[in-house]
Write a structure and sequence with these properties.
Blueprint lengths: L2 H38 L11 H32 L18 H29 L7 E8 L2 E6 L8 E3 L2 E4 L4 E7 L4 E5 L4 E5 L5 E5 L5 E7 L11 E7 L1 H35 L2
Parallel strand pairs: 1-5, 4-10
Antiparallel strand pairs: 1-2, 2-3, 5-8, 6-7, 6-9, 9-10
Helix pairs in contact: 1-2, 2-3
């Protein structure tokens, strides 16, 4: 290769390195600004369960990783669109012939693989911690139906379960939600707990939560389930253990009286029918 050709190749390499450095610098600055801005946003309501801090941290980590990647890629895309755009309606020129770069291809496949694998492991650790079986866990059965949630509290000793359209939970006590659907797909979501699970007809799904802050929090359906989907909202009340026990006893008593009343009315109707000529 002649000296002139070597100089030309060096000039081309230097020319290619300049825009690459500029794109990297612009992408880095935009990434820092983007990460700063997204971390300022309160994406979720107040935390009300032991799982919430871990989920929030995981979400922040995903933002910190994904925002720079997105902005760096978009910087290259915008530069390429501007630099290599057609110069007019009749511009039919081909791009310069280039060769593949095996080292670069290995790098851009390996780095995403490592990032995704680490994030998957981190997510699994957070999920495994949430799903750990804890002592004194209370079971609440949840049924989704267009367009409302119904709840059932199984009782010890084979006693009749307490049914309610209100969800009341004792503070600081682990709860296992067993979730099903009576008609179509729903999704049981308590944003303050940072936990959600699909409700599927014929299948029982579940998740565990330990509410740790007293108050009233939204329950929403996070799966489009029909024309009334947006109205499928209720409230979970987290109360002290003593107040919960009192509420549960009242619900059980009210349910028993209602059942007795229904039985009595049925017996009276049957007697009237027998006495009719």
């Amino acid at each position: 290769m002649s000296t002139a050709e070597e100089r030309a190749d060096e000039e081309v390499s230097e020319h290619e390195a300049v825009p690459l450095a500029k794109m990297l610098a612009i992408g880095t600055v935009l990434s820092l600004i983007g990460v700063f801005l997204v971390l300022l946003i309160d994406w979720f309501p107040a935390q009300a369960s032991t799982a919430a801090p871990g989920v929030d941290t995981l979400y922040d980590v995903l933002l910190i990783v994904s925002i720079p990647i997105f902005l760096l890629v978009m910087t290259v895309v915008v530069y390429s669109v501007m630099k290599f755009r057609a110069r007019g309606p009749g511009d039919m020129r081909d791009g310069a012939p280039i060769h593949g770069n095996a080292r670069l291809e290995v790098i851009w496949v390996t780095i995403p693989l490592v990032i995704v694998s680490l994030l998957a492991v981190y997510g699994w650790i957070v999920l495994d911690d949430q799903e750990e079986t804890k002592a004194n866990t209370m079971v609440v059965k949840v049924e989704g139906q267009q367009f409302a949630w119904h709840f059932q509290y199984p009782q010890p000793g084979g006693a009749k379960p307490v049914r309610s359209d209100d969800l009341v939970l004792p503070v600081d006590r682990p709860v296992k939600f067993e979730i099903r659907a009576a008609d179509v797909l729903h999704s049981f979501f308590i944003p303050a707990f940072r936990l959600k699970s699909d409700a599927v007809p014929g299948i029982t799904t579940s998740f565990r939560a330990t509410p740790n802050k007293e108050g009233d929090y939204d329950i929403v359906c996070a799966e489009l389930c029909g024309i009334g989907h947006s109205t499928m909202r209720q409230t979970v009340s987290v109360v002290p253990e003593a107040k919960f026990s009192s509420w549960l006893a009242e619900q059980g008593k009210a349910g028993g009286e209602a059942a007795e009343g229904a039985t009595g009315n049925s017996d009276e109707a049957e007697s009237d029918a027998r006495g009719a000529p």
